[in-house]
Write a structure and sequence with these properties.
single chain, alpha/beta, Chitobiase, domain 2, TIM Barrel, Jelly Rolls, 3 domains, 8-stranded parallel barrel, 7-stranded mixed β-sheet, binds 2-acetamido-2-deoxy-beta-D-glucopyranose, HEX_bac_N
């Protein structure tokens, strides 16, 4: 090596080492950031000027306490931020000899501190100027600890990670059929029975007939958090800027309670009912008593009461429910759910709290003091906003982290949908709402339902880095999106998370969307007229009558707007008109199997051809054995031969156990 190149190399090396921390690695991205030169060395002593008293205490203690030296030259100043747009807003100025942190409240100082942590390397804190505030007030994650029970240590670890990315709500789904997870002193059966089940895994519990077991008896699996553990968790989260929002499900998803206390269901039979009896005064007493203990543990202004998917199976035939309906002057059982929820809303309001519920709660005559968590369509957000409720957007299509995040074959079993990081990042809350309504959205949240997620490692794998995409939307907003730029920061954060002992999905190895979907296919039927001898299902129209011959294949998810859904006997039966007599050598049809949502491969596939559209000749007819395995996969059923015809009729029958057929693209060659 020549002297010159040696010199250049060492210069380059030195530059690399001293290069300032790249602003692009901050996640979520601050609203305004200018990186400066050099660092503020954290190894030396500092003089602290605190002009805001207790508001800065948390950060002061965390960061500087041990380093305070009144004789030091370098200063850390805490000042009051004037005209803050949010309690979480902050300003940060870092220079080699001084740091100034301004905020209007302790939350703002904490957010500034979280940014400073991302700016810190071994050398110190990177010099910069940052002006920052959140786009949304509610930036949440929901963890379902019922379907699988997770230890408190796992929750604390997630709180640590959430706080690094400026999340401020941890919603814990504490109760569901699969197990009651919170100690309630007044009702011990919730803890010594409803918290325990036969089957460690949710799927084993299903296979074992959804049985509950006495605590400590042979094979009893599960558990619950004690009130002391939860109080400690609340404190731990608060110190990190996170409010814990507890969820107690009602009136549906309550099989575990109604087996422990069958008198609270319409028929009083254990193991038979999912819904509380809204006609029984005892139900209201029970739920209020539970909520009293819940409020005593959780200081959160927001208390979640579920409200989703009540089947209301027995309400129509229950004498007490009928009596209640008369009393309320209603003629529909839906009004009973509305009544129960609004009763709980009032009860919570009287205690200075605010009811949060899944979007089914909109039906109730609720006080404005309500938060609706929209998990289905945006039209429900519109409705909730019209009622004057707060709205947190958590739509299944973007925010359900129980869905696959990469090519299903490369992933542990998940729920049958496809939500890669890029899809989460692409979310614009309320994009199809008028601007005035869009601006009223309170926040965003991702939900980790855990039917398929039995371990902490797998839960982390499903959470990260997708949660980072949501953190970015929640904090930075959606006005200056740029996925490639975000992805660079997310990749850096994945490495950081791994170094911290978290188990994120390896974003850099992502395969992405189904290959077939990415490339339009050319074939003889593209653009042909398709006649449906049996209509497609109205909920899964995809692109309507062109779907099957538009040259675009379906992706990993049945709900991606490319797969067309069919249900019922002989439900798949279409005739394609090629326009004129055409030589054909194969007709291949793509089917999906996704056992979770009951989509199965067909049990029979038939192809017929015709010149006049009336007289058809069958060229292929084959039966297939049905199976619920694989859980998610795709196959093409194909006839090959040599015919000349104008019309092609393709038929398929559902699996031997019924369910849906999902079809996309009939490829004619
Ligand atoms: C929904 C259920 C939930 C379930 C999840 C799975 C809501 C509000 N309710 O059907 O209990 O775990 O889907 O994705 O999401």
């Amino acid at each position: 090596m020549t002297k010159k190149s040696n010199y250049l190399l060492s210069l380059f090396g030195a530059l690399l080492l001293s290069s300032p921390i790249q602003a692009q690695n901050l996640l979520p991205k601050p609203q305004q950031v200018t990186m400066g030169k050099g660092v503020f060395k954290t190894s030396d002593g500092v003089k602290v000027e605190n002009q805001v008293g207790a508001d800065a205490e948390n950060v002061y203690t965390k960061a500087w306490n041990a380093k305070v030296n009144d004789a030091a030259k370098r200063v850390v100043k805490f000042t009051k931020l004037a005209n803050a747009s949010s309690p979480e807003a902050y300003k940060l100025h870092v220079a080699p000899d001084a740091i100034e942190i301004s905020a209007a409240s302790s939350e703002g100082f904490l957010r500034a501190w979280q940014t400073m942590e991302q700016l810190t390397t071994k050398k110190g804190i990177a010099c910069c100027d940052i002006v920052d505030a959140p786009a949304y007030k509610w930036r949440g994650l929901m963890l379902d600890v019922s379907r699988h029970f997770f230890p408190i240590s796992f929750l604390k670890k997630q709180i640590d990670v959430m706080s690094e990315y400026k999340f401020n709500r941890l919603h814990i789904h504490l109760t569901d059929a699969a197990g009651w997870r919170i100690e309630i002193k007044r009702y011990p059966r919730l803890n010594n029975f409803a918290a325990w089940r036969s089957g460690k895994l949710w799927k084993d519990w299903n296979a074992n007939g959804n049985k509950y077991l006495e605590q400590g008896s042979e094979g009893a699996e599960g558990g619950y958090y004690t009130q002391d553990e939860l109080r400690d968790l609340v404190k731990y989260a608060a110190e990190r800027g996170i409010t814990i929002v507890p969820e107690i499900e009602m009136p549906g998803h309550s099989e575990e309670v109604l087996t422990a206390y069958p008198e609270l269901s319409c028929t009083h039979e254990p193991y038979k009912q999912a819904d509380f009896c809204p006609g029984n005064i005892g139900t209201y007493d029970f739920l209020e008593n539970v909520l009293k203990e819940v409020m005593d543990i959780f200081p959160s202004h927001y208390i979640h009461v579920g409200g989703d998917e009540a089947a209301k199976k027995s309400w129509g035939s229950c004498a007490l429910c009928q009596k209640k309906m008369k009393e309320l002057g209603i003629d529909n059982v839906d009004g009973l759910q509305a009544h129960l929820i609004s009763h709980m809303g009032k009860f919570l309001n009287e205690h200075g709290r605010q009811l949060v519920g899944w979007d089914e709660v909109i039906a109730g005559n609720l006080s404005k003091n309500t938060t609706v968590m929209v998990w289905r369509g945006t039209e429900l957000a519109h409705e909730a906003i019209k009622h004057g409720y707060d709205v947190v957007m958590s739509p299944g299509a973007y925010c359900y982290f129980d869905m696959y995040q990469d090519a299903p074959g490369t992933q542990p079993v998940a729920n049958g949908g496809f939500i890669p990081t890029e899809k989460v990042y692409s979310y614009v809350p309320g994009s199809d709402l008028p601007e005035a309504e869009r601006n009223m959205i309170t926040g965003v949240q991702a939900n980790l339902w855990t039917e398929h997620i039995p371990t902490p490692e797998y839960a982390e794998y499903m959470l990260y880095p997708r949660a980072l995409a949501l953190a970015e939307i929640g904090w930075n907003g959606t006005k200056t999106k740029n996925y490639p730029e975000f992805k660079t920061r997310a990749l850096a954060q994945v490495e950081h998370l791994k170094a911290e002992g978290v188990n994120p999905f390896e974003l850099k190895k992502e395969i992405g969307e189904r290959k077939e979907k990415m490339m339009p296919v050319q074939h003889k039927a593209v653009g042909a007229k398709v006649t449906y001898n049996h209509a497609y299902n109205r909920y899964y129209p995809a692109a309507g009558e062109q779907t099957l011959v538009d040259g675009n294949m379906g992706g990993w998810a049945h709900g991606d707007g490319r797969w067309q859904g069919f249900i019922g006997k002989d439900c798949f039966d279409v005739t394609i008109d090629l326009g004129n007599s055409t030589k054909i050598s194969s007709v291949g049809t793509d089917f999906m199997q996704s056992s979770g949502p009951e989509i199965f491969y067909p049990s029979q596939y038939t192809v017929s051809v015709s010149e006049d559209g009336k007289n058809f000749t069958q060229v292929f007819d084959k039966k297939y054995e049905s199976s619920k395995e694989p859980i998610l996969n795709f196959k093409t059923l194909t006839w090959k031969g040599n015919k000349t015809a104008r019309y092609i009729r393709v038929q398929a029958k559902p699996s031997s156990f019924g369910g849906w057929l999902f079809v996309d693209e009939i490829i004619v060659k």
